[in-house]
Amino acid sequence: MKKQIPNLAGGMFLILLLVFPLVYSKGDYDYIMHIMITGFFYAILAASWSMLSGYAGQFSFGHMGFMAIGAYTTGLFCHYFYISPEPTGLCTEMGFFGQYLIVVNPIGVTSTTLTQDCLRQAMDVWGDTVKVTPMPVFLGILLGTIMGGFAGFLVGMLVLRLRAAYLALFTLGFSEILKATISAEINITRGQAGLELPPLYPDGITLLGHYYGPTAKLPPYYTMLGLLLICLLILTWLARSKFGLFVRALREDQDAAAALGVNTVRYKVLVFTVTCAMAAAAGAVQGHYVQIITPNMLFLLQMSLVVAMAVIGGIENFVAAAIGAIILQVVLELLRNSFVIGGVEVDMTIWRLVIFGLLLMITLRFFRNGLIAPIIAFFGREGVAEETVAKRSAGSQEAGS
Amino acid sequence: MLFFGVVIWMIVWSIIGSIMIKRRYLARDLDTSNANFMGAMAGAALGPVGIAALWSRTPTKSGYLTVGLGLLTVLIVAVTFSFADPENICVTSGGFVASQFVNGLIIGIIYGFMALGLSLIFSILGVVSFAHGEFYMIGGMSVYYITAVWFPGVSPLIGVMGACAIAFVLGAVFERLMLTPMYHGKIDRPVEYGILVTFGLAFTLQYFVQATAGANPVKVQRYLSFPRWQFPEDGDPVWIKTSRGSLTLFDQVSISSPRLTAALTCIFVLLALLYLLHRTWTGKALRAVSQDREGAAIAGINPDRMNMLAFALGGMIAALAGALLVQAFSWLPQVGAIPAMRSFVIVVLGGLGSLPGAFLGGIMVGMVEAAGTGCVPDAQKAASYIPAYGMIVLTLTLLLRPTGMFGRRFASSTHGQH
């Protein structure tokens, strides 16, 4: 019975998360919801990173890079592509099922005198007579996911020979190149000024007879939670199938795995593709939720948050990593309150990160499986010892008789 | 347009070359270890002709051939650049080129010195220290605190030495507390553990300094002011002229005092370090551990103590670089990130774990940065791309030749295999 405790606790935690937005109604509702959504976002990243790095042993520092690929793909897609029933005569455009697919020209951020791109100019001429349709957000997220998976596939192909420190440096380099490119190509990506995205549900959404506007927190909450659950289901399914066994073999000894007939190339590339696609999907949804993306989300600090969350949760157990990410995100927000001790004001906005770093080091040093994974394992392995003893004694009796 | 055409041509042929020459060497059952790199260089330098020559002759690989082809590539890029943009200041003004060259050399020596610490740590512990940039930051901050806050008016020399001592102790304590379990097989994957735990140290140090020192930039006075002097007295051009803050050679090349003192100190400390490594028992023991851990242990060297020494020394070297550069740049808790990235690039370029490689790589990166900032038109975009140049070099080196220029393959399993 004790064996079921992690499952029961997990189920209760999940139910709590599911009903939370419906029952909670204090004044700081939006703030708490925002923290939770960000927590789910980090949970997806931490879970997929722990699959890649902990489970498959491909130690990558470029996870935020793939996340940014997802976010920027959907951002650029929604920013530059429109469908219009009339040709503008100014933009690059082509026929598209009886309408026109319009590619807006990039104007950058510096041309303040020319704030109008070609589509806005055309719309000024039309007035209200023509209705331009923006691209569906869902399609952008899907494209972002595919692009993230594709980038993961390419990187996976490139790093076949690299291991350990070399792989970490390569992926770090990849992420930094991406950051520099996004910052430098101001004309297209708007650089540090940030790219604006349409909200996740641009026209609002009606759920169970209640209308939620584009900026309401509840629909993105369930979207992000749903994405997290889908990712965890896929990861669980992968880990329990042949795939999980093979990538673990890859982690322990690549040459031995290859000698025993594991197609190491295929599984290495596959694990990169799947986890990077998940990171990209999370990035795309988060981008639409916060409605602005900047190259700063590629800073090493962001990556270190994900790494620390996964490590503290339990690097080789992605469910524990996800739970760890949610809990840590909430704890980090709760620790924001500065306090005065002995006449000295302690600025907790920075000290909390010092504590976080210390916690990361202590976890690594003394709790190598993280803080949450051992709890799950403790209950999960309840009775295993007795079973083994019973089996052994039964076996020896058989041998004896 | 011409320039980018040539560059794209080179990239295409180097990709083709790296793939085809590798296949060819594999098919002929020859040593393929560097075939990728040589093929890429031949493709970039000579295009299809070079690849065809390599393809038909399949010469035994020699360093001279590869280096020659590499230099030819650089030359072709430079010549194309001068043809494509004849108005550029790098083509028209020899004095500017000389000035950029000397300043690139000087800053490169400092970069190389800092990367040397990272390489020392890797060659002995097998860990890429992600906290290297934070040691650099700690070095500068310590000098500021010692000379300006705790003991105002104290000689900068004491500040620098204090910074070195702080970093040395910090490195030694951290190694004892955090890195010891990875030496004895207690951890499944020691390399990943080392990366993560130094990453944690970097995170903690950076925010600790930000929490205690604040996020305002600090600056230290320059350590040394030159006397006013020139030689010859009434020559034209004047060979050497010094003013308080800088030194001018031939009226063209101006070197600022902080950079010159930093570079000279780096060279001096480097010589001392070489003496330590090659002439003393401790240094020989360090090198022995980096070559063969078990062998060194049999010969009576305590490898764990050497690990501690190497990590502390590596941290101290980074802190010294920071302590010397704090007089040239303003200092923030986040200041370590860019030098840390640059050190990664340099050690990978020179070969992870190779000390001369790190130093030479540093000089090369310094020169390339000087050329990049001085010569590339559209300065704003160039400045945004500067962090990317180094990273492109890093990823290309890892793909084509993971051992770098002077790298060797590490036999022990603690070092990441290629």
Short description:
By secondary structure, chain A is an alpha+beta fold.
Describe this structure in words.
- The complex is a heterodimer of chains A (401) and B (418).
- With 401 residues, chain A is an alpha+beta fold.
- Chain A has two domains: 2-78 and 136-337 and 345-384, ABC transporter involved in vitamin B12 uptake, BtuC, CATH 1.10.3470; 86-130, no CATH class.
- Chain A has helices at residues 5-23, 29-55, 63-80, 118-126, 137-158, 164-184, 186-189, 218-240, 242-252, 254-259, 264-290, 300-313, 318-334, 348-366, 373-380, 384-400; strands at residues 81-84, 92-96, 99-103, 133-134, 195-196, 205-207, 210-212, 292-293, 339-341, 344-346.
- In chain A, helix 2 (29-55) packs parallel to helix 8.
- The longest helix of chain A has 27 residues, at 29-55.
- The model of chain A has no long low-confidence stretch (mean pLDDT 81).
- By secondary structure, chain B is mainly alpha-helical.
- Chain B has 16 helices and four strands.
- Chain B has a four-stranded antiparallel β-sheet.
- In chain B, helix 1 (2-27) runs antiparallel to helix 4 (63-84), helix 7 crosses helix 8 (156-179) and helix 8 (156-179) packs antiparallel against helix 13 (303-325).
- The two termini of chain B are 38 Å apart.
- The mean pLDDT of chain B is 80.
- Chains A and B meet through helix 6, helix 12 and helix 14 of A and helix 9, helix 14 and helix 16 of B.
